[in-house]
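Internal ticket - ligand job 755, iron/sulfur cluster:
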Amino acid sequence: MSSILKVSSNPHVRSKDTTARIMQYVVIALLPAAAFGVYNFGIHALLLILTTVATTVLAEYIYTRCMKKKSSIGDFSAVVTGLLLALNLPPMAPLWIGVIGGLFAIIVVKMLFGGLGQNFMNPALGARCFLLISFTSIMTNFDCDAYTGATPLAVIKSGEGSVALTDMIIGRTAGTIGETSMIALLAGAVFLLVMKVIDLRVPASYILSFAVFVLIFGGRGIDGTYLLSELAGGGLMLGAFFMATDYVTRPITKNGQYLFGIFLGVMTGIFRLFGPSAEGVSYAIILGNLLVPLIEQVTRPAAFGKRAVRKGGKQA
Amino acid sequence: MAKLTFHGGVHPWDGKALSKDKPMKAIVPQGEMVYPLSQHIGAPAVPVVKKGDRVLTGQKIAEAGGFVSAPIYATVSGTVKAIEPRRVVTGDMVNAIIIDNDRLFEEVSYTPNDPEALDKKEIVELIKEAGVVGMGGAGFPTHVKLSPKEPEKIEYVIANCAECEPYLTSDYRRMLEEPEKLVEGLKIILRLFDNAQGILAIEDNKPDCIALLGGLVENEERITVKALKTKYPQGAERQIIYATTGREINSSMLPADAGCVVDNVDTIVAVYHAVKEGRPLMNRIVTVTGDAVRDPRNFYVRIGMNYRDLIEEAGGFKSEPEKVVSGGPMMGFALFDLDVPTTKTASALLCMTRDEVSMMEPGPCINCGRCVEACPGRVVPRRLAVIAEHHDAEAFVANDGMECCECGCCSYVCPAKRQLTQSIKSMRKTVLANRKKQG
Ligand code: SF4
Ligand code: SF4
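stdout (structure tokens):
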């Protein structure tokens, strides 16, 4: 009898949460935006999404096999990466863009650094920036059957013409596959908040600080329509709720998360208002990712019972 | 009013329904009784009997081995069979006195006291002589706790009635069935501290206890009942002090540094027995529970009884257990072997048909932050675990590793199923051992 008893350290019970379940929730939360993207841009968008996801999953599977490690695709994180990357691509980009981006995200940004949890940069974003630099014209071409010309942010930036705010909120505009619909993105975000996969610390401090930045430096005073357009347009919603909240690449400490969010808000503001392009979310988040170790270092919480001591109270 | 609580913590399935409505049942021990000489923190007790001696129930068989130590009493009558190493719940072999139970239960006589007529020194002496130790799990000798350097600075005596560990119902039964002893015991302790208020701190999942004890202390000027939010580990010493008084202490401080003394339910009842009835510590309540047990319930157990006999009394196993835990699921010890004795600190025996932990494979940390959120010690378990795996003692201490109370919350919440508590715990052990070596 004694030989069959299992012995291990406490605790002897565990919560129901698993990595795979969390990743599945993220996939579910991205589906409204993906579905709207397909509805908005047509069948090519769907093919691009499927190609990209298939690439990331296969790449991870083959990589782990070649390295003679256990396959890790069961944790669904490769699906999340593929889906996020696809939603960040222009709707008419050729399918091979998805393949190259997917390979880069998984092999270079994720696996070479040691796989899930070890990468210091969000793989999907890393790949997007790589594509932007390598294939600039493809990645910045948002012409498609439904819309010709510029994205709403570019229109606003140029100061010529305007885009109806309702169109921006619903998502009937040009842009990447998954970024256009504020409503679809918020629906997914609410789902993640309710399921306690994410909390509001990073997204709220990001969006609020960005809004404040725009109010101060936007040069249009308190203009509600302009402010809302800046919030709804471009990759802000997708970035704030789905990419800045990526566990692996945001700080783990509470105060660090607020700091991180504020940093992203300010950087996005700088890129958008003063940079050459109308966009800025991706670069802001990647820059933020690089600062995470530093942010975590300066925001380490005071252990229980040590607050008083740190504040100069009695040293025990 | 905001509920009294602390930062962090988790809400595991509480499993208390299995045994909570089963009254305490006394067991008559049959076979040999085993009394490990280390059932407490501090120096082992020293035997005062030898092989072949006949002893009576209630007779002292080992005396305290120092100031921080506690004597041990026989809980049956019989003959000393041997003094030899025996396995205890932690898996270690510990020197123990073995008594062959003659089933006559001949008992020594005790001299009851009137607590009002005793002075402080006499009260502490009675508690010390009775071998009372913290029965919530730590086993710190109670007379030491009750002898702080500056007793007049103690402002609160907290009766820890939280019983926050899942499955445990022993304190609950004690509060329901013998509430007067708890209150009387608390009053005795309050006699030692002239400036202190007594607090009965109870989790709000036990409204019946709150009502019952609240009624009992209605006219007691120095005692109040405080309801705490139900959350694990509400009953951890530092957390309960914070919840009831708003004071924080760290690992290198004592509750007395915050003007507090904390004792758990069974300990306070033992104080009552020791002082009022003059009876040494011989019994405790043990919850025998879990899905592998036929009839989960609460037993009034004579210390020294074999665990196997407890399970027998609970109707035996209805299914083969995969894991048996001494204590609760969050902080208890998994047993190698059922053949170990009940000690002063054994609060429960939890028998699980399936060991879900062994079926979960740890994956890579995804940095989700759940462990940080759940940690009542406000440290960063993920980072501490990594440091611990690299055996970097210096960084471990610098990152407040010693502030971990080993509550298990971090491992509990981790979606990657990492063994955070285990890594941190073993590193703490190493650091403590090194400190001891350096003196
Ligand atoms: S809970 Fe587990 S996965 Fe999450 S940060 Fe902590 S160690 Fe990593
Ligand atoms: S680090 Fe220690 S105190 Fe914090 S949750 Fe883990 S076991 Fe509990």
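Auto-summary: The first strand of chain B starts at residue 25 and ends at 26. The CA atoms of residues 97 and 270 of chain B lie 22 Å apart.
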